[in-house]
Amino acid sequence: MSSMFSRAGGRRALIGAGAGVVVLGLLLWWLLPLGERPPSGTITFSTGTRAGVYQKYGELLRTELRKDMPGLKVRLMTSAGSQENVERVASGEADFTIAAADAVETYKIADRTGAGRLRGVTRLYDDYVQLVVPTDSDIRSVADLRGKRVAVGLPNSGVRLIATRLLRAAGIDPERDITPRSDGIDTGPGRLGHEIDAFFWSGGLPTDGLKEIAETAAFRFVPIGEDLVTKLHESGGATRYYRTTNIPESAYPAVQNGAVVPTMAVSNLLITRADMDPRLTEWLTRAVLDSRDGIGAHVHSAQLVDLRTAIYTDPLELHEGARRYYRSVKP
Known about the structure:
Elements: H1 2-31, E1 41-46, H2 53-68, E2 72-77, H3 82-91, E3 96-100, H4 101-109, E4 118-134, E5 149-151, H5 158-169, E6 179-181, H6 188-191, E7 198-203, H7 208-214, E8 219-221, H8 226-234, E9 243-247, H9 253-256, E10 261-273, H10 278-290, H11 292-296, H12 307-310, H13 320-328
């Protein structure tokens, strides 16, 4: 008799376990978009210099993507920055990247290879232009850079694009009136004061490469006034993406001593190509928006990613996959 009850109990346990599996399966089906299995395969994501925000964001996003799409391998490629990133995606060397809107527009205006294939995924956060000099420097404005050793960013970087335009707006020839150096955020801070007199950086706030040396208060920021931004706008083209703003006092407290710094900013876009798989792009778009707080805990600027503004990827039209996602969450 006890054997009979044991067998019956075993059958009930099996039935119960089977029902649990079914319920779990239904729950997973409900939670997954459209009941689909996560996309898999390999994608290449072009980031930036190792000490910059693009690289940090790319590393954190890769971790988040593993949670939603465990079968998707994300290969990160460091780069000089925005200009190289745009070219890599347009040419097919990379599948996704982050790039500043002015660099994207510059590439389009030049009608370079693959420009018509570029598509937007989401608007991310703003890059702030940061002109850095030693604390005891006599440089007080962009115009004071004349005759100085100035790091204008790596070739094909977004920094180089912005620094060149700012110098010209201030009446300085970037090749003749300064000694240009090709340092980025990875090398510029270490050479400040003995090999270079100033360096330009454009990135999210705060940038690790500056945050690390800010504790020593070994530098200060040079303000970039509204008059220069106005001159940039007058030159037309991609300069319409620049806006006046301030570096908030909380960005680098040890250096700013409670003061804001006038400067300009430009929005960053997550971009891809028109031929990228719509389903994969939809999943990736969802992951970017869903991981805002998780990534933002490590990259402060990522906290500014917002569903209400994410769809504004001007100068690029939205990729079809991204469009599908935004339609699915539209209130």
